[in-house]
């Protein structure tokens, strides 16, 4: 793939995968070293690079493969696209639901008087939410629908993600979900996993877009037989790919662009270095800065991976001693640092690639300690600068 950061689409079912793939062009396979097959291409309008992956059913595989996609491709956003069951009568078949936040509803404690909820919740980023709502209001996303397909309702609200297929209105499970998460519009099985993986990667924007294919009330066989799965995912894929275009316009260039692609402000690109000698100092005077900024005595000392790694090792040990990093995180971070050192020692492109993957995992582990995360970013920049 090009150095331009892509957007990642993930789906659980082949039907969903095919619906998204219809909106991509120049598609070709990409094999992950662990055997996962992604496909890479571009949005069909000639837009940004795109990655498509199939995760299967469930939050656990969704989390693992979302993390794998993030580490492999370093996307600017992740979209999970598919079908869901409606939890309330006002949500119609074929409607598109964009998750304002995701409930992992299986968290709880079982006590004598019943199951008490202990949910995890992930909110959509404010910027992503604003872009999605604007896209819905202006209606331009509808051009992505196939000819003759009527535009569905688009709804914004919570989605509940668990580990079971709900298909009853009266079971104890169904009643508990509707009672405990009574603002959730729909229910599905993968959003919590994808949201957790994105959260652990410096809060990467993740947007869940679902088409309603059934009512989770015992009529799933009938609605599936009436082709509502296909119809619902066509609607979801249309909105998701339109949303991807808007996210790309704003993510890569920092400032909003109008619909003709003209950016309001163009950011500085490439590497800009100011080097001072003797007793001189270099100041930074800039408007919007996108990416990493390094200030040092010389480009050579600032971009030495070995020196950066040694600095990171020392700061990590201090963080453990000060209690900023727990023992489990420290051990995991040390393991990733060992991979980086071993991989860079090979002095090959394959070794450099392995080192970058390990560094991205390390960045996720240390994201809660700001200066450690910054030092990881500095190592990443240094490794990228190695020819």
Automatic annotation (TrEMBL):
Region Disordered, annotated ranges: 247-270
Compositional bias (Basic and acidic residues): 247-268
InterPro entries: Nucleoside_phosphorylase_d (IPR000845), Nucleoside_phosphorylase_sf (IPR035994)
GO cellular component, as recorded: cytosol
GO terms under biological process: L-methionine salvage from S-adenosylmethionine; nucleoside metabolic process
Record domain Nucleoside phosphorylase: where: 6-243
GO molecular function, one term: adenosylhomocysteine nucleosidase activity
Pfam families: PNP_UDP_1 (PF01048)
Protein name per UniProt: Purine phosphorylase
């Amino acid at each position: 793939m090009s150095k331009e950061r892509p957007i990642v689409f993930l789906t659980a079912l082949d039907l969903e995968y095919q619906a998204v793939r219809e909106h991509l062009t120049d598609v070709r396979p990409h094999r992950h070293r662990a055997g996962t097959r992604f496909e890479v291409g571009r949005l069909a309008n000639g837009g940004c690079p795109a990655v498509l992956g199939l995760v299967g059913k469930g939050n656990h595989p969704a989390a693992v493969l979302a993390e794998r996609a993030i580490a492999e491709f370093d996307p600017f956003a992740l979209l999970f696209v598919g079908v869901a069951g409606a939890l309330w009568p006002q949500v119609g078949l074929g409607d598109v639901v964009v998750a304002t936040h995701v409930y992992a509803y299986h968290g709880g404690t079982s006590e004598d008087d019943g199951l008490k909820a202990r949910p995890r919740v992930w909110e959509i980023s404010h910027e992503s939410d604003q872009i999605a709502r604007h896209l819905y209001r202006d209606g331009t996303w509808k051009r992505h629908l196939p000819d003759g397909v009527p535009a569905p309702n688009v709804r914004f609200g919570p989605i509940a993600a668990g580990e079971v297929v709900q298909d009853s209105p009266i079971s104890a499970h169904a009643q508990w979900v509707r009672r405990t998460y009574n603002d959730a519009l729909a229910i599905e099985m993968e959003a919590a996993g994808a949201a957790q993986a994105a959260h652990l990667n410096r809060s990467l924007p993740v947007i869940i877009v679902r088409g309603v294919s059934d009512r989770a009330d015992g009529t799933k066989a009938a609605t599936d037989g009436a082709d509502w799965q296909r119809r619902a995912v066509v609607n979801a894929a249309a909105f998701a790919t339109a949303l991807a275009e808007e996210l790309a316009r704003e993510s890569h260039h920092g400032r909003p662009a109008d619909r003709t692609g003209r950016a309001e402000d163009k950011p500085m690109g490439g590497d800009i270095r100011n080097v001072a000698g003797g007793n001189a100092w270099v100041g930074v005077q800039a408007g919007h800065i996108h990416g990493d900024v390094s200030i040092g005595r010389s480009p050579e000392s600032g971009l030495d991976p070995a020196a950066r790694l040694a600095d990171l090792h020392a700061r990590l040990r201090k963080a453990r001693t000060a209690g900023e990093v727990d023992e489990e995180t420290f051990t995991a971070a040390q393991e990733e640092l060992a991979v980086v050192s071993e991989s860079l020692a090979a002095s090959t492109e394959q070794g450099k690639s392995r080192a970058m993957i390990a560094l991205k995992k390390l960045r996720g582990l240390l994201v809660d300690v700001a200066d450690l995360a910054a030092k990881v970013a500095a190592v990443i920049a240094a490794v990228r600068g190695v020819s």
